[in-house]
Structure formats: C-alpha cells, structure tokens
Amino acid sequence: MKLGLINSAWVQSGRGTGYGIHKTKEIGFDSIDVFADPLEIDVKEVRLIKDECAKAGLPIMSVACVAVGLIDFNPSVQRFHIERVKAYLDMAYLLEARNVLLVLGEYIWQQEVIPPADQWATGVRHVRTLGDYAADLGLEIALELEPFKLSLVNDVASMARFLDDVALPSVKANLDISHLVLAKQPADLVDRLRGRVAHVHISDCDGKLHGDLPPGRGIVDFAPYLSAIKTLQIPEAAVSIELEYSPEPEKIVEWVTEAYLKTAALMKTAGLRE
C-alpha cells in the first residue's frame, strides 16, 4: 500500500500549494490527498495542484469533502450539498484521483423532533445518487467513520448498515484508525468491511478526544489495526496520514517528517510497505 499525506498538514507553513506538494515528496511519501473546496478555488488552482503533483511524482489518491448538509432537514440545503459534492467529484476526476473521501453529518436536536430514521434515509438516498455520479466518472466514494456520539456513521456496524442500504459498489468505507480507537471498535471488527474499503487514514490520539497526532504521540496500538487492514488485501489503496495543527507551527516540516517516519516503520513491520 502507498503511504500518503493529506495536504492540509501544510496550512501552517504559510507557503503556496506547490511548497507543500514538493515537501511531501521530499520527505518520502508515495502519494498525496487533496483538501480543497472546488467552490473556493478556481480552475487555475486545480490545474496547479495537478501539475505540481505530476512534477513531484505524487499520485493523488483522494479528495476530502465534508458535506454535513446532505442530511440537513431543509431540502434546499440538501440540494446545494448534492451539487457541491458533485463538484468535488468533478475536481477529483480532473485530478485523476481514486476517490472522494466523504464526511456525512450528525443527527440534529439529539435525535428528537426529526426521527433519526428519516435523516438516515435522506443520507442513504443522496449518497446513492452521488455514488452513481461517481461511478460514471470511474471514481469511488469513501465514507468516513466519525467517532462522535451523534454522527450518522460512527462505528463499524453503522458503516456496514449504511453501505448495505446504499448498495453500490462505488460507495465504500474509509477506515480511520484513530477514529476506530475513539469509537471503541477493536481491530477484529474491520473484517466486517472486507471488500468494501477504499481508503485508510492514520493518526494518533489520547484515546478520549479527536487528535490527529503523529503516530507515537498518543495511546493508539496500531499493530492490530494494520494487521487487520493487511488481511483485507487492498494493495491499490493508500494509508494517508491526517494531521491537525502542530503546537509549534514554525516546526511544521519536523512535525510532518516525524509522522512519516513513524508511520513508515509501522507499515513496514506490518508488511504493508517496504
């Protein structure tokens, strides 16, 4: 499997897009994920991302999209977010990425007022529409498991049920190891998603709060999860490091390098990467 980095890690550098891309390659990463909103950037920036990644020899594996409005109770908001996610899929197609990493929203009002089943059905309906759109572009949607109490998909069981309800080969799961730990999902549950995993995220945490720290700075025992991921036999996928802000922004290169070295060692031990 490839070892990648979500390029949002470089926001603290205060440098241009090309800087982060070339630093990613220089450190040793095999691939890159793009965190950019197609409604916030222009076509020149999209072309810049593609060209700079090509120059650096970094394939783009995933484009990250947070679209919590897909399950908003207002139909107008839902329609906007359907079109917005389609714009992400269009951009992913132009960037020759493999998938769009999709983050769904949460149940509102503590699952009161609006029946949770209605929000679930809305999410399924819209993701099915987007899955068909993705398939037509030769792309996949990778759904993120979010470890928060009211997240629509917040454990392996709800992920499996959501994928079953959508029932499209173009809609699969993203496995985020720290999210699985925070959601108290042991590594052996990963097998329930066999054949339905498109992408993997890796980072560390304190076991209580969402952290996205470099591996080794938290409490996550990565070995069982990486071993379980190996048995899924998805060599074409990537394990992408997701990092939140460094406490020392002026040392962002060191922060990313630390995450790379720790993850590379973990993947080598697990037999996922040479």
Q: What structural class results from the helix and strand content?
A: alpha/beta
Percentage of residues assigned to helices:
40-55%
Overall number of structural domains: 1
CATH level-3 fold name: TIM Barrel
> Order of strands across the widest beta sheet?
1-2-3-4-5-6-7-8
- What number is the mean pLDDT? 96
The CATH architecture is Alpha-Beta Barrel
Describe this structure in words.
It is a single chain. The chain has helices at 17-27, 43-56, 75-94, 116-136, 156-166, 177-182, 222-231, 252-270; strands at residues 2-6, 31-34, 60-66, 99-103, 140-144, 171-176, 197-202, 238-241. It is an alpha/beta fold and 274 residues long. The chain has one domain: Divalent-metal-dependent TIM barrel enzymes (TIM Barrel, Alpha-Beta Barrel), CATH 3.20.20. It has an eight-stranded parallel barrel, surrounded by five helices. Strand 2 (31-34), helix 2 (43-56) and strand 3 form a beta-alpha-beta unit. The longest helix has 21 residues, at 116-136. It is globular and about 50 Å long. The model has no long low-confidence stretch (mean pLDDT 96).
